[in-house]
Amino acid sequence: MRYNIKKIRENFPILNQQVYNKTFVYLDSAASAQKPVQVLLKEEQLHNDFYGNIHRAAHFMADKATAEFEAVRDKIKDFINAESREEIIFTKGTTESINLVASSFCEKFLNAGDEIIVSEMEHHSNIVPWQLAAQRKGAKVVKLPFSDDGVLQIEKLPELINKKTKLIAVAHVSNVLGTVNPISEITKIAHENGVVVLVDGAQAVQHIKIDVQKTDVDFYVFSAHKMYGPNGVGVLWGKKKLLNEMPPYQGGGEMIAEVSFEKTTFNELPYKFEAGTPNITGVIAFGAAIDFINEVGIDEIAEWEHELLEYAKSKLDKIEGMNFYGESPTKTSVISFNIDGVHSYDLGMLLDKLGIAIRTGHHCADTVMQHFGIQGTARISFGMYNTKAEIDIFIAALNRVRMMF
Ligand code: PLP
Predict the structure, then answer these.
(1) Identical fold, 5-31+297-404 and 41-294
(2) Among 92, 285, 359, 391, which is least packed, fewest CB within 10 Å?
């Protein structure tokens, strides 16, 4: 395999540290990925060499910053194979992207008595905005369930969809179960019934090649910080026709064409949805993260992470008392589990003292916890930089902790 893990890791100085005098092992990339030096240098370069507020002033610094900012829009367009750059809207993150659609799309298209189908394996940020919109409009949120192995029961979709259904909100990849959902299939069923589909790609876009045109989904959203980029930046991609029909989300500078006390007209896409000064630094540094992913290769990353997933699972399977959550045949690099007699918080805390960062708790996915009748899980997740040696360290530490209980 041409995957050069040693070279990749050289770009992430944080990974070469010790914590509590132990080798640092980072197994929490699903929460937020570490950043390569290229991203950090880009932020520094911006502030040293060409900072100015974008789109507005007619001076060198602003022009240069604007060009860099807009170039990232083109990079993202290519990265997800969007049809046009106007379809790429910068937000604060996945959460804001979903709130934007829930607010604006629902303002225009959702009526009293309508229904929104939301999968049972969603992050809170892909449930609550729909509940809020439904409350405002007198509409209803309907659950699309998953089975105990963590597979979405899409065979139930045709019976859940009716004339009142306006939208289906579903994660491409579950942040707890790791399940990769069949978004093209879901979209096909939805579109046959005139229903719009929003896909939460927060846990997918850093692991799987995304082609929004091929999948034919209507909205696709994600966050830069899970893609080795800065936090406070996200993307809403939407089909131009729908975005054009939707009213603005927030009012302010940049999103207008003309303002008077009598009448305000709005800017064109994508600026109609980008009110105020955006996270200029974040977006420009996000471009460096995209370049980095492209350089390593998304298919190569996927292959490596799959190898890590299989390796970790084969080791974990040998440990007594393990309970796994999410055993879909299509999975990305997330493993959620509990060990008999060990509370996940205790496990997380003890592993931390051994230098290993994992995630514990409900993972902002209460409906998944409710499905299994549990309070929380331990979760390990991999990024492009993890190694089998790190998994060995984790497994040894896990066995040590188990012995304590
Ligand atoms: N959706 C999924 C599947 C997630 O895993 C997360 C974050 O963990 C989010 C949405 C929210 O992302 P953000 O906090 O970057 O807005």
Answers:
(1) no
(2) 92
How far apart CA 297 and CA 304 sit, in angstroms, is: 11
Domain locations along the chain: 5-31+297-404, 41-294
> Is 33 touching ligand 1 by the criterion CB < 6 Å?
no
Find all residues with CB under 8 Å of 324, minimum gap 6, and list them: 316, 335, 336, 337
Q: CA quadruple 325, 327, 330, 335: dihedral positive or negative?
A: positive
Mutation probe of ligand 1 site: the residue of 90, 125, 226 with most atoms within 8 A of C-beta: 125
CATH number, span 41-294: 3.40.640.10
- For residue 396, the one-letter residue type is A
CB of 95 sitting under 6 A from ligand 1: yes
How many whole angstroms separate alpha carbon 225 and alpha carbon 212?
20
Per-residue model confidence as pLDDT tens digits over 339-357: 999 999 999 999 999 999 9
- For the Cβ of 122 lying below 6 angstroms from any atom of ligand 1, the answer is no
For ligand 1, say whether the CB of 94 is within 6 Å of any of its atoms.
yes
Q: Are 144 and 160 in contact (CB under 8 A)?
A: yes
3-state secondary structure 7-33: HHHHCCHHHHCEECCEECEECECCCCC
Whole-number Å distance between alpha carbons of 86 and 96: 18
**Nearest residue to 94 via CA among 71, 124, 135:** 124
What share of the chain has pLDDT > 70, as a percent? 100
Cα–Cα distance, 362 to 32 (Å, whole number) = 16
Q: How far is CA 24 from each of CA 14, 225, 381, 389, rounded to the nearest angstrom?
A: 9, 20, 15, 12
Mutate to test the pocket of ligand 1, among 90, 92, 95 (most ligand atoms within 8 A of CB): 95
Q: Please state the pTM of the whole predicted model.
A: 0.98
Is 364 labeled as catalytic in the residue annotation? yes
5-31+297-404 carries CATH number 3.90.1150.10: yes
